[in-house]
Amino acid sequence: MEPFDELLTMAESAHGHLCAGQILGVRMAVLGCERLGIDEPRGRDRKRLVTFVEIDRCATDAIGVVTGCRLGKRALKFRDWGKMAATFIDLAPKDVTGYRAIRIAARESSKDLARTLHPEIENKNQQQMLAYRELSDADLFTEEWVRVTLPPREFPGYKAERLACAQCGEGINYDRFVERDGQRLCYACANPDGRYYQPL
Ligand SMILES: [Zn+2]
Ligand SMILES: [Zn+2]
68: CA distance to ligand 1 center in Å? Predict the structure, then answer.
């Protein structure tokens, strides 16, 4: 793994700015890899890691940069839970019940700790950026070993039949369809009210 400052520079250029979230995200991802014994997540170990993120904020970008897990590689999974937390899954050892993973969450108290540590800095972001460098992992994060069941369709390299929706004709990857009256429908056609968009 690259030194912390090198990772931070990579995160900064990918994210567009340096912020407290980048520092938190880089530290979270480094810790996750360390716990799993993954030293080169973007090199030698690149096929070993899948990461779930639980928030769509700054730190998420940094986690993607450090782990190399990307949405487009199906290696980054997003659960919109609004929590500053991520679960790092090691795909290498497997038993029948799933994969070993470490879930790391930022402590809610870390902001207060930053204030206590650097009351002389008025700017919150600056205050947190410095404190999040200095605080220990234990002060910043909680950790929990967990098990994750990852169905085949969730795997980075998974391939299967692609079909066209019987109603709209759009192509659908793998098993993302609903079968109704013998017809295979895409999610949008199967449940129009549940769409995130409505036709104008
Ligand atoms: Zn940011
Ligand atoms: Zn359709």
Answer: 18
Give me ligand 1 centre to Cα 13, in Å: 11
H-helix or E-strand containing 130? helix 124-134
> Which burial class, exposed, middle or buried, applies to 63 when counting CB atoms under 10 A from its CB (0-12, 13-18, 19+)?
buried
Q: What pLDDT was estimated at residue 96?
A: 65
For residue 160, report the distance from its CA to the centre of ligand 2, in Å. 19
CATH number of the 4-152 domain = 3.30.1330.130
Dihedral angle sign, alpha carbons of residues 55, 32, 73, 158: negative
Domain ranges of the chain: 4-152, 163-194
- Interval 147-156: pLDDT, tens: 999 888 888 8
On average, the pLDDT of the chain sits at 94
Ligand nearest to C-alpha 23 = 1
pLDDT at 93: 77
